[in-house]
Design brief:
Layout (H helix, E strand, L loop, with lengths): L1 H13 L1 H21 L14 H12 L9 E7 L9 H15 L4 E4 L14 E8 L8 H15 L4 E6 L9 H19 L2 H29 L5 H29 L4 H28 L7 H32 L15 H7 L5 H11 L1 H16 L7 E2 L11 H13 L7 E6 L6 H13 L4 E4 L3 E2 L5 E8 L6 H21 L2 E5 L1 H35 L3 H26 L4 H4 L7 E2 L2 H29 L4 H28 L7 H33 L8 H6 L8 H21 L1
Parallel strand pairs: 5-11
Antiparallel strand pairs: 1-3, 1-4, 2-3, 6-9, 6-10, 7-9, 8-9
């Protein structure tokens, strides 16, 4: 592989006009496709295999036109102090709002508070329920604007009006976060690469790659039902890995220049060595993202595949566009150790012979490997302790910041009708084929009333055929509580008994039940996902490093860093530690998607650092250095670049901590802290300690397996052989001349 990539790098450098034109044309083509594509809303959301989804599908079949999975909104009204919602003036204002909302093009139904029992017992709070024809993630922006305008008109009459439900659900804005990440990346790149021009190359090529990926996603969004949320993950991951991959190739190019090679030769060798690491690092990220399909949540699968495509584009750009752009830059990209005058180039030569920070750190670790290893493991273990108290769930309006109308509506409904009113359960009774469906409906209602944590059970509402009915159940506790989850399980257990007695199916659905089912599905999928992703990457790393122990060490180190990161997330977002500093207004269960999402993204990125760092160490070992010296050599050439890559990644993810959306905030913090632990504790500390303790045994591989594995030559040994052959030819020519 090294030889092929070496030739590709030289070709791209030499034919830079053709390569650059290809990528510019591809970007223009993707941009044109995105501009001409129909605007896509948000991806439809379904959870195959869950009881809640089965009930939704049954409602669509038996209650046609009822929009069972349609968006809902609760417009909550509160009377001024000393007044009641039943006062004539307030009642007239509510009626006007109901009439205004009924005229919406996507509105299926609006309930009247005064006819449907939507007024609290003390008369101070009322609500109107709005049901839409499409799910919340597919709702047009004009419908949301009409909803907010109706609420504003009601406020003008003196009422307090807030809006809850999923109708106002929108994709969080992330533009400012990306700008912050790019800004920090630019500063780190300038410091690392020593010149503004060299720093600009990774940024430029990463933006081109992300532009192609996001534009392609936008162009295909309507056709493939990708939705606008898909591009968020693709742009975040694509930007981070695009900068990292380009950084590694440019850094290796400057190192080759420092060894006296010509620029075209240096470009070829940079792609042949660092490019090999980029290929396998990219493969681990792709495996992790595509592996999300095992969860069997279509939206998550599409997001993972789309992000994996963006990563693949980043790899191809690092292998072709980077050497082409280096050809355009010419002598303005300086050899490693030679900085521009702007950054103090005069002092660089004075420091050239001094060991750099990576060398000093690696030398320290290999002298005290056992102490460093134990300290690192104990530290990560302590950070992971809170993960033992992990509680999973999906956030509702109660987890929103108190400044949002959704949270204020949630609090008003809790005040007027009780906490469980924010998470009603919908029980669907399918009595088709039963001799007496009405008796089945009554039996279901009576058994549900007898359960604990039930405040109210509405009479059964049958369909026109009379064979299926819905029963609304109001829990006693808030939607995200363990008591409500227990109630859902109790209703399902009672439903199993009813099925045994009558043959009728009793299914529980609604937003709260769907959240519980999603959390359970994600929790059940975590272990299979870990086995698949870690197993495939383990096999890939065996091929890359030609070792059993090094990939095993990489996988175990990753698990340590993820557990420590989950512990930090629990401590901040569930326990409330440092909540003020992190802007956490409401603690609660950890988003159920968080663990599997963190595993997927962080595993891919962690293996990036593992591949880039350890291939440099193995390269030195393959070329004849002793194991401990190879560790120091590897760190001398790669520690600075790996550190810069990690800082860039942390900066990109940290920008999302400032988001107003609690889920985005949690994801940003979790990914940032996971990269911090993995890059600086595991890869930069535990890896050299373990390699120093193992010595030459680290690279042990059974002979039969060594013969069976393909030789991918990530270290560029074939290039070294090429060098020796060229040197021998030169010597022979000199002898002939003599």
């Amino acid at each position: 592989m090294a030889t092929f990539l070496y030739r590709l790098g030289r070709f791209s450098f030499r034919k830079r006009h053709v390569v650059a034109l290809f990528w510019v044309a591809l970007l223009a083509l993707a941009g044109a496709g995105a501009a001409g594509a129909p605007a896509a809303g948000n991806s439809s959301f379904s959870i195959p295999g869950t009881e809640a989804q089965k009930a939704f599908d049954l409602l669509d079949e038996r209650f046609p036109g009822a929009s069972a999975d349609g968006a809902t909104a609760r417009v909550v009204f509160k009377a001024p102090d000393g007044q009641k919602m039943t006062d004539p003036g307030n009642k007239a204002a509510v009626q006007e709002t109901v009439d205004e909302l009924s005229g919406g093009a996507e509105v299926a139904q609006v309930s009247d508070p005064y006819q449907g029992g939507g007024v609290s017992q003390d008369g101070t709070i009322a609500y109107a329920s709005v049901t839409y024809k499409v799910p919340g993630m597919e709702l047009e922006e004009t419908s949301r604007e009409a909803l907010q305008a109706a609420a504003e008109d009601a406020r003008d009459s003196g009422l307090t009006v807030e809006i809850g439900g999923d109708a106002l659900q929108a994709v969080p804005e992330t533009g400012s976060a990306e700008i912050i990440g790019i800004g920090v990346a630019a500063v780190v790149l300038v410091i690392t690469l020593g010149s503004l021009l060299a720093a600009g190359l990774p940024l430029l090529t990463a933006i081109v790659g992300v532009g192609i990926g996001v534009a392609t996603i936008t162009a295909l969004a309507s056709t493939l039902d990708l939705g606008s949320t898909t591009s968020i993950l693709a742009s975040m991951i694509g930007l981070a890995v695009g900068i990292d991959y380009a950084l590694f190739v440019v850094s290796r190019y400057r190192a080759e220049l420092a060894e006296g090679r010509e620029r075209e030769e240096a470009a070829g060798r940079a792609v042949g060595t660092a490019g090999s690491a980029v290929v396998f690092a990219g493969l681990t990220v792709v495996i992790a993202l595509v592996g999300l399909s095992v969860v069997n949540i279509p939206m998550l699968t599409k997001m993972g595949v789309a992000a994996a495509g963006t990563v693949a584009v980043a790899v191809l750009i690092a292998l072709t566009l980077i050497p082409a752009v280096l050809g355009y830059a010419g002598r303005r990209v300086r050899p490693a150790g030679e900085k521009s005058k702007l950054l103090g180039g005069g002092r660089a030569k004075d420091k050239a012979d001094r060991p750099n920070m990576g060398t000093r750190w690696a030398s320290f670790v290999v002298r005290r490997p056992l102490a460093v290893l134990l300290l690192g493991i104990v530290g990560l273990g302590a950070a992971a302790v809170p993960a033992g108290s992990l509680e999973l769930g999906l956030p509702d309006d109660g987890s929103q910041p108190t400044s949002t109308t959704q949270r204020r509506a949630y609090d008003l409904l809790s005040e007027g009708f009780g906490p469980g009113f924010n998470g009603p359960l919908v029980v669907v009774v399918d009595a088709q084929g039963s001799d007496d469906p009405q008796a089945v409906f009554r039996q279901a209602g009576d058994e549900i009333k007898a359960l604990d944590n039930v405040v109210n059970v509405a009479p059964a509402a049958p369909n026109k055929a009379g064979d299926t009915a819905t029963i609304a159940v109001i829990p006693d506790a808030k939607p995200s509580s363990a008591a409500t989850e227990d109630l859902v399980h109790d209703i399902r257990a009672a439903g199993a008994g009813i099925k045994d007695d009558t043959g009728a199916d009793v299914l529980v659905t609604g937003a709260t039940a769907m959240n519980i089912d999603v959390s359970q599905k994600l929790n059940d999928a975590l272990v299979p996902y870990l086995v698949l992703v870690v197993g495939l990457a383990f096999l890939l790393l065996i091929v890359v490093f030609r070792s059993i122990l090094v990939p095993l060490k990489a996988a175990l180190g990753f698990l340590l860093s993820v557990l420590a990161a989950l512990g930090a997330v629990v401590a901040v977002y569930q326990w409330g530690w440092l909540s003020g500093l992190m802007g956490v207004e409401e603690t609660g269960p950890i988003m159920s998607m968080m663990p599997i999402f963190m595993v997927g993204v962080v595993f891919g990125l962690a293996m990036d650092y593992e591949v880039f760092l350890v291939t440099r160490i193995r390269e030195a070992h393959v070329h004849g250095e002793k194991p401990s010296q190879a560790v120091v050599t590897g760190f001398r050439y790669s520690a600075r670049v790996v550190t810069a890559a990690a800082v860039i990644m942390i900066a990109v993810f940290s920008g999302f901590i400032g988001s107003s959306d609690s889920m985005v905030k949690m994801i940003g913090f979790g990914l940032a802290i996971a990269v911090l632990f993995d890059a600086f504790v595991v890869r930069m500390t535990l890896v050299p300690a373990v390699l120093a303790l193992l010595g030459a045994k680290a690279w042990w591989l059974p002979k039969w397996l060594d013969r069976a594995l393909p030789n991918v030559d990530v270290e560029g040994e074939s290039l070294a052989v090429h060098d020796r052959a060229a040197d021998k030819d030169d010597e022979d020519k000199e002898l002939v001349r003599a």
